[in-house]
Structure formats: C-alpha cells, structure tokens
Design goal:
Layout lengths: L20 H8 L3 E5 L2 E4 L1 H21 L2 E2 L5 E3 H7 L10 E4 L5 E4 L4 H9 L10 E10 L14 E11 L2 H21 L4 E5 L10 E7 L5 E6 L17 H12 L3 E3 L5 H5 L6 E16 L1 H5 L3 E3 L5 E3 L1 E7 L1 H11 L1 E2 L2 E2 L10 E5 L5 H16 L4 E4 L5 H11 L3 E5 L1 H5 L2 E6 L5 E5 L3 H6 L1
Helix pairs in contact: 1-9, 2-5, 2-9, 5-6
Length: 440
C-alpha cells in the first residue's frame, strides 16, 4: 500500500482525554477515532491489526474443535427474562424497544441466546461435546468508560460456549479452552498468566483470568517467577487427549498466581522470596464454568445414556480482540511509539523513499516494493514528499517491525538501510540481496 493513497490521519499532539499509553498511541497513530463516550471507529491501520488478532483467535479456536457461528447483536428481552437476568443485570445493559413495543436489548453477552440455539437443535448426549463461538460487537453501558478501547462501551468479543453431558466432560472442555488461550496469547506475542478468578455464587475452582504483566496494568497481581519460563503448548498439542490437556493445565495452575481480589497472603508468604513477582497486570481473557445455571433455567436438556433428560453443563470463554490490541501496546511500546510483535503488525515492512521525485530513488523503491509484495510481505510504501524526520517519526510511531530506507546516496552505492524497530539496530544491505535477506 502506497502511503500517498492510504488513509493514515496521524496526530502530532496527544488528545487531552488520552490517559494511558495505548489510548494515546492508538489515537496518535491513526488507528482509532472516538465517535462518542466509549465508542470508537477503527480506522484502516487499526482495522488491519484487529483482523490479524481475530485471525489468530479463530485459528486457535478452530484448532481446539470449537465451531464458529454468528449471533445477532440485538436480542429479545424474553430470553433474558427466562434466565432471570433481565432485571438483575443492571444499568450496563442497553434496553431498547422496537416499533411494536417489544422489549429488546443490545447484547452485552450471549449465554441466553446460545442456550436457545442449542436447545432448539440438540436432543441427545451423542451430539456432545459441542463448543460454539463467535466474534461479535457487544455493548455494555459502562458508568465511566475510559482508557480508549481498554474499557469502552462498544467492544469486539470472541465468546465461546461449551455444552457437555456432565461436570467431568465439562472440565475437559474447560481445559481445552485453557490450552487454546495459552496458544492464542503466545501467538500475539504475549506471555499470559492464568490466575484463579472468583466464580461467584456457583462455587468451584473453574474460573481463570489470563493476565499479562505490564507496568501500566489496571490490577495488582502476584505470581511465581516460574511462569515466565513455562513453555506454551505447541501447535501439535492433541486437543482430543484429556490427560495431555489436564497435565498442561496442572503445570500452569500449580505455581502461585492471583489478582489482588483473590490474593492469599499466607499462600504468598509460602513462595520463596526470590521467586515472588508482584507487578501490575492487564486481563486479556477469562474462562468460566457455570454448570447448569442457564440450561436448567431455560430447559436446555439432552437425553442421557440412561434415557433420562438432563440439563447440559456449560462454560463460557471470552477474549476481547479490541481490548487485546490496547493491552499489547501497553506491553510493547517505547518513547517513539508502538513496537508491534510481527504476528499482528498492520504491515510487515515500512519502505521509506527518502527523495520522491528522484528518478533513481523512485525506480529502486518501486522495484523493491514489487519484489517485497511478490515475496509475500505486507508493505507500507512511504512515497510522500515530506521531510526525512517526519518519515522516520511516522514509521516509529506506527511500529512496523522492519523499516527499509532508500536514499539517493544509497541507491548510487547499490544499498539500502534496514532498521529493526524493536532493537533500533540498523544494517546496510545490498539492494540485490535485500528481499532474500528479509525472507531469511
């Protein structure tokens, strides 16, 4: 993509409402624009990152055996009355009425709707286990939306819902999602630590928040340093092997890890002092087993092996891709801007023409642009006639992993400069060898 034809509205000044790093950098880099309190447009650069995050989420959900569908954003209030949550949910739910005076709502979550879909189609335990997921916009009317897309009112959510015949089977489904989440966050460049979360009135121990460590995090967290070196399951992990899954979950839940809300001072003191890691953290995912709470209330039953109808056991599993982008920026930035992990960067390479209009410079850049694209790279080609300092500042701000800098002097010598955004390291590379060098 040529920058002269792209929509990249960079801001030189930081808007006053930007309180945290990710909000500031997303606004300045032209990723988002606020439309109302807690409601944002994702502009082209932000949309590219959002799509890449969603692709990784989808691939890992599919790998785990979950099946994608898409439910509507507008839901009938009758389903929520059936589950008993309509009046209990509170003011965060946006309640609306259509022209026929029917009560509707803009869905903050989808437990009721997916339970209704399940009960209308599944009758036998032989059709289980089942996990249905979608990636869809939600709305929760936060009393104080803040921090940009970190805590917005409208947000993109991947929510999955598992259905199983009993609690033992439901635990396997839970473990499957636990492992899928470890892989998802690792592929986004993050080390996410699962921390035991409050299960509310349901009880039990099947609820975990996935937390990344960041100095600007919302929550105080406490964990064992062993988490920093725990290996993430490989792509070939067998999601059909219940014991393999259980062993992975055991390894990732045995060391101490807790948010401030669940912190146990006695257990923390039992951790060796040199292994204690107290830090700030950001929640990037939450998985939850809630048993028959919705299936019993909404009569979502299947016929079991003994011929009797039983309510299914359910779990829900959430990742907010729009929030995840902000969390990644909080973890990966410097004083000049964003430093994207390669897997989710909006473009792989920023190609900078230092002197547009110079025949030799233009020819070298056009040739590189074509060859890099042919080699499979996503390239943002800065072909605009602006100052060198502005070009470098823009590329650093938007955080592309690699910058290729082509100027008249280098072209005459048959060379280009390659800069690694994360390290700042610069190398001079022959133009003839540049594409192969980048591929390697």
């Amino acid at each position: 993509m040529r920058l002269s034809r792209y929509f990249l509205p960079i801001l030189k000044e930081t808007p006053k409402e930007a309180e945290i790093v990710s909000h500031r950098l997303m606004l300045r880099s032209g990723m988002i624009r606020q439309q109302a309190a807690g409601i944002y447009s994702f502009l082209p650069l932000g949309k590219r990152v959002l799509d890449k995050v969603c692709r990784i989420v989808r691939e890992e959900q599919d790998r785990s055996g979950a099946v994608e569908l898409l439910m509507p954003t507008i839901q009938s209030a009758d389903l929520w009355r059936e589950s008993g949550r309509y009046d209990d949910y509170g003011k965060e739910m946006l309640r609306i009425e259509d022209r026929h005076e029917r009560d509707l709502l803009f869905g903050p979550t989808n437990e009721e709707m997916v339970t209704d879909i399940f009960r209308s189609s599944v009758r036998s335990y032989k059709d289980l286990p089942l996990n249905l997921y979608h990636i869809q916009w939600k709305f929760r009317d936060e009393v104080r939306p803040r921090f940009g897309v970190m805590r917005s009112r409208e947000f993109l959510m991947k929510d999955a819902y598992s259905f199983d015949i009993d609690q033992e089977s439901a635990r396997i489904a839970y473990n499957r999602m636990f492992v899928a989440y470890l892989r998802t966050f690792e592929r986004c460049g993050l080390k996410a630590i699962p921390m035991r979360a409050d299960t509310g009135p349901i009880g039990g121990d099947l609820s975990h928040e996935f937390i990344i460590l960041a100095s600007t995090g919302e929550s105080q967290v406490y964990c064992h340093r062993d988490f920093l070196d725990l290996p993430v399951p490989p792509s070939g992990v067998d999601f059909a092997d219940a014991q393999v899954l259980a062993d992975i979950v055991s390894a990732w839940t045995t060391p101490y890890a807790a948010t401030d809300e669940m912190h146990d001072e006695a257990a923390w003191n039992a951790v060796p002092a040199d292994a204690q890691l107290a830090a700030r953290g950001i929640e990037v995912g939450h998985i939850f087993y809630f048993g028959t709470k919705y299936s019993a209330a909404m009569n979502a039953v299947v016929t079991g092996p003994d011929g009797k109808d039983v309510p299914v056991h359910m779990g829900s599993y959430g990742i907010g891709p729009s929030r995840l982008i902000a969390a990644i920026i909080e973890a990966f930035h410097d004083e000049n801007g964003i430093v994207w992990p390669k897997s989710i960067a909006p473009f792989d390479i920023g190609l900078i023409n230092m002197k547009p209009g110079d025949a030799e410079c233009d020819k070298a850049c056009d040739d590189l642009y074509a060859k890099l694209q042919a080699a499979g790279f996503d390239v943002l080609y800065d072909d605009e006639d602006t100052r060198a300092g502005a070009k470098f500042a823009t590329m650093d701000l938007i955080g592309l992993p690699t910058q290729v800098i082509v100027g008249p002097r280098g072209v005459k010598a048959g060379e280009a400069e390659v800069k690694d955004r994360a390290t700042g390291e610069r190398q001079t590379v022959p133009l003839a060898a540049l594409v192969e060098r980048l591929k390697a």
